[in-house]
Design a protein that fits this description.
Elements lengths: L52 H7 L5 H14 L4 H9 L3 H9 L9 H15 L3 H21 L48 H13 L5 H11 L3 H29 L70 H7 L22 H19 L12
The structure holds a DNA duplex.
DNA sequence: TTGGAGTCAATAGG
DNA sequence: CCTATTGACTCCAA
């Protein structure tokens, strides 16, 4: 009698950007997609109890993304498994994306359905008793393939052959085939893409502009672009990226703040694999450094106060927290997400190493304030339905 | 169109 | 090799 309901992971096909997420849940009958003859791969794939990940995501209870990533990082490092391998075979994401996800997971309630997918996959992976073993097998095989390729055949480029243990590799599509047509070198393979790299001064200038106006008008963007001698699209992209990255920093800050307080310190009895020293990641720095000491530093508790036009506040900005009432429970999902090993319950995470001396954070918050103000103005007389589910 | 969310993929450091 | 950063791109919703 196997103790685990489903041995595990038979993941799905995650064709690059094909297939959207069907809203799959409890509302739209469906009428999914209009037939697309061009692209096959309807991804039949079920795996767990016959559910696609999308379905699982839709039914998933709230997960503690921070705890999950923490655990994943721990398992990966303890076993010398890289993000690339993990990302490509378990999450269907590239290394850079995995790095980002693991380092700055957004709180569950701020994630879209799509964004929750990787976390559900991670949770699933964590609950698979043979996860590490499988990944190591894959690693071995990759190495073997690499050796072979490098040794014998010389002038042949091959990208990835696989004969991997066949079961749980998310068949990521072959590296080529992107639907992204972001390259325009039909003839000259030599014209590499420039890959704009902004100089520190340029970034500074942009950040300054952002402080002033997180949402510059097209005119302002034009001006900035010409002043800095950058393409307009670069400036636009920069603002898009910066805004969203700032936003994310604030999220993680929220998480840590919430984790920090709350009473009982770390002390948790994680028993699963983890010995290994798990030092806290003390990655805080935020290179925003200009020479200016900027003068005074002070406690800030801005943020959130000005916004919310009316009375709706009660610091909803928190994450897992209580969510006191009603929490849907899923049958098989429950068994999977139940509580494999201490991960999944919003525990008062332990992040001892966080010193209370954030400096540039203040600036970010201030900028965020502008951001909020901007939105309020823009929404003038429209109220935002603001409810976090759950 | 604009902005947000998610990612990709080049590349800078280890 | 590996990970972190980041400009650009796709999708989608308003």
């Amino acid at each position: 009698a196997p103790e685990s309901p489903l041995s595990s992971a038979e993941e799905s096909v995650k064709s690059q950007q094909e297939e959207q997420m069907c809203r799959a849940s409890i509302q739209e009958p469906s009428e999914t997609s209009e037939s697309q003859p061009g692209t096959p791969l309807p991804l039949p794939l079920p795996g767990h109890g016959g559910l696609s990940i999308q379905e699982m995501v839709a039914m998933s209870p709230e997960l503690d993304t921070y705890a999950i990533t923490k655990k994943v990082k721990e398992v990966l490092t303890d076993n010398n498994l890289g993000q690339r391998l993990f990302g490509e075979s378990i999450l269907g994401l590239t290394q850079g994306s995995v790095s980002d996800l693991l380092a700055r997971p957004k709180p569950w309630h701020k994630l879209s359905l799509k964004g929750r997918e990787p976390f559900v996959r991670m949770q699933l992976w964590l609950s698979d008793p043979r996860n590490v073993e499988k990944l190591m097998d894959m690693k071995r095989m990759e190495k073997k393939a690499y050796m072979k390729r490098r040794h014998s055949s010389i002038g042949e480029s091959h990208s990835l052959d696989s004969g991997l243990s066949g079961s749980d590799l998310i068949q990521c599509a072959s590296p080529q085939h992107l639907s992204q047509q972001q390259q325009q070198q039909p003839q000259q393979p030599h014209l590499k893409k420039p890959r704009v790299v902004l100089a520190p001064e340029e970034k500074e200038a942009l950040k300054r502009a952002y402080q002033q106006k997180p949402y510059p008008s097209p005119k302002t963007i034009e001006e900035l672009a010409s002043q800095l001698n950058l393409k307009t699209s670069t400036v636009i992209n920069w603002f898009h990226n910066y805004r969203s990255r700032i936003r994310r920093e604030l999220f993680i800050e929220e998480i840590q703040a919430a984790a920090g307080e709350g009473g009982s310190p770390s002390a948790r009895a994680g028993k699963s694999g983890g010995e290994g020293d798990n030092s806290c990641d003390g990655t805080e720095s935020d290179s925003t450094a200009e020479g200016r000491p900027s003068g005074s530093e002070e406690r800030k508790r801005l943020l959130e106060s000005p916004g919310l036009s009316h009375r709706d506040e009660e610091g909803e900005g928190e994450f897992p927290s209580a969510s006191g009432t009603s929490r849907p429970r899923g049958g098989i999902i429950d068994s999977l997400f139940g509580i494999p090993e201490s991960v999944s319950v919003p525990t008062a995470a332990a992040t001892p190493c966080r010193n209370p001396k954030d400096s540039s954070l203040r600036k970010k918050k201030a900028a965020n304030l502008n951001n909020i103000i901007h939105r309020l103005e823009k929404a003038a007389n429209r109220d935002e339905p603001h409810e976090w589910e759950f």
